[in-house]
Amino acid sequence: MIDRIRNLAARASGDIIELFEKAPDRAREFSIHFDGLLFDYSKTRITHEVLEALLEWCETCEVAAKRDAMFAGQAINKTEGRAVLHTALRNLSAEPILVDGRDVMPGVLKTLARMEGFAEDLRAGVVQGQGGRVTDVVNIGIGGSHLGPEMATLALAPYHDGPRCHFVSNVDGADIHDCLQGLDPATTLVIVASKSFTTTETMANAATARAWMAEGVDDPGKQFVALSTADDKVADFGISPERIFGFEDWVGGRYSMWGPIGLAIMIAIGPVRFREMLEGAAAMDRHFREAPLPENMPVLLALAGLWHHQGCGYPTRAVLPYDQRLGRLPAYFQQLEMESNGKRVSMAGEPLDLPSGPVVWGEPGTNGQHAFYQLIHQGTQVVPCEFMVAAQGHEPDLAHHHTLLVANCLAQSEALMRGRSMDEARGLMAEKGFSGKELERQAAHRAFPGNRPSTTLVYDKLTPRRLGQIVALYEHRVFVEGVMLGINSFDQWGVELGKALAKEIEPVLESGETSGKDGSTAQLVEFIRTHRG
Ligand SMILES: O=P(O)(O)OC[C@H]1O[C@](O)(CO)[C@@H](O)[C@@H]1O
């Protein structure tokens, strides 16, 4: 199957712009609308023939059946023997979902109601700190217990009407130091977000926060909340059961912002808007489950990704939100995509016969334009770009800024596609008075190859509902790509070795006993020990 796709990519001739000239309806044919979103993948080399081949590959991989198995609560995460049910966290219809014969929905909705009660009480000043109304909330977590809440809280800044939310993740003491500076322990609530409640970074930061809190209040434990699956470990830390918001092991870390891990988001924007975010995600879930594959937005987004990565062989993709408040979305997608699909063996444990998922990177526009777009336009590697932009901003008084923002976004995808030919560049240089060899030399620097693919996701406005849809859209894209690559997208064994070695090296840094370590590691330890003051 992949050979057919690769042959199509190798045979693709002519420029993307010519595809528009040949088919005036191309933009409509290679785009899809769904509930306030437009995904346009027409500025790529995908043709009807390519799409047909990609869809056939998708069918061969039984994506639809595997999707249904996920939604039905089957243990599709086979290396950990778990179901994958982040979708249950936004199943507000309460339609039963059975895991091992037990409906998980009553528990999900009960926890959601507890979170709502707590968030309301905190926002209303009913739940207080030992120095009065809580003014600041510090979420301590890392990876999936950090990136989602941080990303969504920033994204929904126009809706904030609760206490200020801060996020600490790095074990680097600078992170918690800078966060706590200026906060008052007596009016601060600390959320310890950790599915396992064993993650070194989070536990170190939680202990530091508790010590800081103990300096300012009599009973630090009263101003801590835990979001975890590990009640016993939370109890050992000293957080009482009514301050634990639990979830089950079928919620993966990077898929967890919809449940208790999203408590900081709920505190910031309120339970009503948090529900709107869940409803947006649930709408995308329904679309993913019900729309035929050729009219299914997550499937088409996945196929565009696979075409570029597997078919055309482009090793990375850039996520480029023209939306300052989506500034953490590239980092969020890095974990979502690379922790999910960065695997070298198949479900069966055999070496993959395809490259694993691509490197994902990005930055919000227009900032990226003044940093790395040079390479995107004129470097020798092709980087498929995934642009995102809202039709409206949240600042009506600054509508002219938004027009500039949108114009830049659209201009970039157009420039990538059109490029600038040598003849056009020669014309520009001739106008400036160059001639002969110097004109040729100058023109070469100013020519753009063009024909570089991009997709654009446009939404009306970045509301809680739209954010929910967009994140769920990408979650399902990762699922489809994972199934088609034959990968288990829901484990992350690749993070374990480094964690284990860090535990070994910690005492070595104290003792300096480097026997058994390689020469480089031993040299680094020695340098650090002699320079750490
Ligand atoms: O929520 P926890 O258990 O602290 O884990 C945090 C993160 O660490 C990881 O396990 C990777 O190290 C992620 O998958 C997870 O999101």
Automatic annotation (TrEMBL):
Q: What class of enzyme is it?
A: isomerase
Principal localisation: cytoplasm
User: What pathway is this protein said to act in by its record?
Assistant: Carbohydrate biosynthesis; gluconeogenesis; Carbohydrate degradation; glycolysis; D-glyceraldehyde 3-phosphate and glycerone phosphate from D-glucose: step 2/4
Describe the reaction catalysed, as an equation. alpha-D-glucose 6-phosphate = beta-D-fructose 6-phosphate
Task: Keywords in alphabetical order, please.
Answer: Cytoplasm, Gluconeogenesis, Glycolysis, Isomerase
Lineage top rank: taxon? Bacteria
Q: What sections of the protein cross the membrane? A: none
User: Which Pfam families does its entry note?
Assistant: PGI
Q: Which residues form the active site?
A: 339, 370, 499
Q: Name one GO molecular function term.
A: carbohydrate derivative binding
Recorded hits in CDD domains, A to Z, give: SIS_PGI_1, SIS_PGI_2
Record carries keyword Cytoplasm: yes
Q: EC number(s) on record?
A: 5.3.1.9
Q: What PROSITE patterns does UniProt report for this protein, alphabetically?
A: P_GLUCOSE_ISOMERASE_1 (PS00765), P_GLUCOSE_ISOMERASE_2 (PS00174), P_GLUCOSE_ISOMERASE_3 (PS51463)
Tell me a GO biological process for this protein.
Answer: glycolytic process
GO cellular component terms? cytosol
Compartment annotation: Cytoplasm
Concerning PANTHER family, the annotation shows: GLUCOSE-6-PHOSPHATE ISOMERASE
UniProt record similarity statement? Belongs to the GPI family.
Q: What does this protein's UniProt record list under function?
A: Catalyzes the reversible isomerization of glucose-6-phosphate to fructose-6-phosphate.
Task: Supply the name of the protein.
Answer: Glucose-6-phosphate isomerase
What gene is this protein a product of?
pgi
